[in-house]
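Students often ask what a 'structure token' actually looks like in practice. Rather than answer in the abstract, let us consider RUN domain-containing protein, a protein of 459 residues. Its sequence is given first.
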Amino acid sequence: MTLNEPLIKDLKGYVLRLHQDAVKMPITDTHPSVLPFCQLLESIFRKGLKGLATAVGVTRQDYWVWIQNLPKNSQLSSGQRESSPPFLRSVSEKAFSLFKSTIEMTQKCSKVRTVQGRGRYFIRVALVKNIITVPVHLLHQNKDIRHKTYDSHTSILADEILTEVLLSALQEVTELNFDLNVKNASFLDETWLLPIYQSYEFVPCYSLGIKIGYVRGRAIAVNVREGSVAAEDDKVEVGDILDEMYGESLYLCKKWKIPDLLKHRRGMPIQLDIVKGHYTSGELYPPAASVLRQLGVNLENLIQIYRKKSFPKKKVNNQEDVINPFPDAMSALQMPDQLLPKNNVIFPVLFIGKVYLGKDGTKEKIIYGISECLRETSTKQKVILETQETALLVKDPETRVVLYEHSYTMIGACGRPKSPQTYFAYTLGETSCNLSQHFNCYVYQTKDADSSRDILQNI
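Now compare that with the structural description of the same chain:
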């Protein structure tokens, strides 16, 4: 490992920017450095992770696995505290207690269901509680976990000098006031990109005037009655996702839950948290676009409606200038070239469809999945397949909207038939593949056999 590690160098650059702005106000989700900082920290935590040996072979694991096991494997004895280097001495009892409560909070959060989502949720809560250094401290003190988890030649966290540099940068972060909305977590399983999140309290009423559609566990507003309580000031719009009601998560809820909550609290103010389906620029929130498409919503018409709605404005040199209080999907992801994964590869392919496999997501199910999908599906969709460092992205070729983000930790197997080799597929679980109980087989077609081979090698 080089002492001039690019990931740490870039991370320190964002720490500096956060420090400069923290003097003026708390750091919120709208700060342009929060997203790339979190992405970089995740990349550092993932760099050099070893595979996990299972009955079906070696599978990828994620950083949340070792983080959640740290409390029961950490010894905070006074003798250990004295023998450790100064920068690695045991964390305070208060910080350790906060660390344990953060892990428990993450484990109980019903909005994240994958190891990727839980790891991201943990990072956000740890920033708010100023304990982001604690897992790094404890990991370094526990050589057994460190050696089982990370490759000593490629990992930052397995290198003592680089760990010291990382801790120095993260220590500065613990001095900042992060005011992140940790309730905004329902899409962390899929992406770091956050939507606009709104909390409302409506007057007591029998009906909010919202028609709800359900897709992939999301409760989505497909129609809002004009003149209704929800429609006032566009509080709820078509394409918005109902995230919480009375403090209870609506992610993966049964269709009867919302009417049941309203029935049992009749006559009380209605507390509702909303994930907006678009940014103030009028652009769709990318993960929302895929579920809206499944509901049959005309996305082009919806975007035009969003764009026609006026933005907040201010006077600058006697002219009106638009204020965007939240960065849109594209500006939030604008990052220096050195931060972009060097091994991203893009392939134009046809998405054939997916078929449910049950509990078995092994390689033996690939051929079955392809044949079943070809038998059941008559339409093919043009998409862009992008292989990134940690996930596979499926995008719309025209809008570049992300339709799916499939973490490699959730992919159980991939492969193609002997003939024709233009088809390929992978199995995907609802959580880490070694823990998943439900697998789907996603099937694609490429222009030639070489392309399918290249994609499988990248996966």
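One point worth highlighting: The chain has a mean pLDDT of 84. Ask yourself how you might have guessed this from the sequence alone, and why that guess would often be unreliable.
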